[in-house]
Write a structure and sequence with these properties.
Number of domains: 1
Strand order of the largest sheet: 1-2-3-4-5-7-6
Protein name: Acyl-CoA N-acyltransferase
GO molecular function, one term: acyltransferase activity, transferring groups other than amino-acyl groups
Largest sheet: 7 strands, mixed
Domain N-acetyltransferase: 83-212
Keywords: Acyltransferase, Transferase
Order of helices and strands: EHHHEEHHHEHEHEE
Radius of gyration: 17 Å
Helix content: 40-55%
CATH superfamily: Gcn5-related N-acetyltransferase (GNAT)
InterPro entries: Acyl_CoA_acyltransferase, GNAT_dom, Trichothecene_AcTrans
């Protein structure tokens, strides 16, 4: 039996979220500037508790997002979030998290401003693709993570394929803002780079911070 055949893709249950977030944190480690900024201190107990509760709140509030887990036996080895996005994403961090929540998540004002600027640039390519569909929408891979101890078993590819298959059935594009490390995986699933390096207009005052290096990939529907 191949490794890929031992991987199952099912929906995340609410009780899975602490483990799912830990998988995500270990997957990205400290080498993903956007994740590090969006989920502060995600490698600490406090950061993980805050992070999984934010993910769970997102799941419970969004009927358009599907939260998936890749399991091997009874072990969660990977997670993904696919969203059918028919309207442009929130353009500001405040719209995403809520004004009152921002200082709770990013207690440091400079951290909060940094993430605010990152988000504003992050959603530009996504917004254009969604708008160009004229309301039909696109499938957006908003999060993909595979535990480092279970990589190269086919979990990542299976999680990506779940969404591209859904997009194909509806004749829609699928998109992702991917890390350089994950680019080969996405390309193997039919996504093509449309922006080799996404632009982040962070302005002045953040010269000591690492700007994310992300590639914007798009897959045309295969019908």
């Amino acid at each position: 039996m191949s490794s890929a055949s031992q991987i199952s893709i099912v929906r995340l249950e609410d009780a899975d979220f602490p483990t799912a977030f830990e998988v995500m944190s270990k997957s990205f480690g400290s080498d993903a500037p956007f994740i590090n900024a969006y989920f502060p201190k995600h490698d600490t107990p406090a950061g993980q508790e805050q992070g999984y509760k934010r993910l769970l709140a997102w799941k419970q509030a969004s009927s358009d997002s599907t939260f998936l887990k890749a399991v091997k036996g009874d072990v969660i080895v990977g997670i993904a979030v696919w969203t059918l996005m028919t309207e442009p994403p929130p353009q500001t961090l405040e719209e995403v998290e809520g004004k009152e929540e921002l200082p709770k998540i990013w207690a440091d004002e400079k951290d909060r401003e940094w993430m605010t600027r990152l988000w504003k640039s992050y959603v530009v390519p996504r917004t254009k693709v969604v708008n160009d569909t004229g309301g039909r929408g696109v499938y957006v891979l908003e999060l993909l993570a595979v535990h480092p101890g279970y990589q190269r078993l086919g979990a990542g590819k299976a999680l990506v394929k779940w969404g591209t298959d859904a997009a194909d059935r509806e004749g829609l594009k699928s998109i992702v803002e991917g890390t350089l490390v994950a680019r080969r995986l996405y390309e193997s699933c039919g996504l093509v780079a449309h922006i080799e390096e996404m632009h982040f207009d962070v302005g002045e005052g953040f010269e000591d911070r690492t700007v994310p290096k992300l590639v914007f990939l798009v897959r045309e529907p295969q019908v």
